[in-house]
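The protein record minuted underneath.
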Amino acid sequence: MSLPSARSSASTPPHAPRTLDAGLLLVVLAVAFESMAVGTVLPRVAEDLRGLPLYGWASSAFLLSSLFGAVAFGALSDRRGLARGAALCLAVFALGLLVAGLAPSMLVFVLGRLVQGFGAGGLGALPFAVISTRYPEASRAPMLAAVSGAWLLPALVGPLVASLIADAWSWRAVFWGLIPALALVAPLCVLPLRGGERAAPGTAERPLLWPALGLTLAAGALVEGLRREDALSLPLTLLGVAGVLLASRPLFPAGMWRLAPGLPAMLMVRGWAAFGLLGANAFLPLALHELRGLSLTQAGWLLSVGGATWTLGSWAQAGLERRLGPGSRPARIRLGMVGVSVGLLVTALAALGELPLGAAYAGWFVAAFGMGVGYNSNSLLALLSVGADASGRLSGQLANIEVLMTAVAAGVGGALLARAQPLSRAFALAFLVTLLGSLVTWVAAARVGKRGG
């Protein structure tokens, strides 16, 4: 999916307001903190609201609605301007935080997550739309680097801070606490975006709205079909699979699901790597809490290790790029994906009690480091495989396949927790599914350097 339409650099101001710089970065920090923090407190939420059967939906609802939210933001911004799009997404995100924080039941909490996701999807696309339309060309690369860097601090401390807040006060404070921050950030971000040109109606995201909505609903049907145990289970699952395949056709390159060489394989490396690592991340804190007796703070430390080592892996791949050159990218992708699978296996065995608990930290370190090396090498190879006129669409495809596959993985894990007994068996199956998904990247990674035909 492409980003909202960009005007030529000739129509951009010579310097964006400093308030816009601050507003954009603070919005990214808020969304990043929420994204990194929630996984840590979900075990407490499920316990407090007696909502284990809907555990997977707490992640899947957020992710799937964010996929559609990003596309809807693009359409609204093209038609009504970036200021209105940003204001709406901030308001919706805040409303979702409020609903989740006040939730009297797990079903209402999932609804809050659904609302949050819609707003977060638009806010995630906002920096790229703003940078491409409101910043001069010379300022775009530094601002993109700043946006990427704004994810680092939440990745490192978000899980730990969230667990400390939940232990000291309540898991609800993790959600409520962001609302005042958003109220302060909103004027900094929205007011400088008022005015400016708008794209002609229907020129950018509008044609993709229906396929994106279809993909979101189909993936939701798949997740719900896997979770249910009644007569609707099989029909919903089959309908979901068919819908995902059908809705994917206008959104992704042909041959993606069959791992066609070239760009389709690169997208599948991204998608299945997210299925493996981020899918396991969705239920790993719960597994450590239920099976190994870790507190939320201790589980938060593990997720913080993952955030730090993913960043370390990203730096390592940048160093390898400089030393070994572009020709080493396919090999780095393969090596990184092997690290993801091996790390996942060690982490799963430790979480299940087959290895010492310390092995979980070592395994997660290896998996996240491999992700940083292989995932970033794959993204670089993909972005440099298309022309500048197609880079916006490809960026959307890379983001959306990650969201889709993570949501499905979280849904599958949640379905197993809801249906399989005892919990140790459910977690073992959930880890097995994510591990098998990560192995698909080995096949896809072997095809990224080949030409599609």
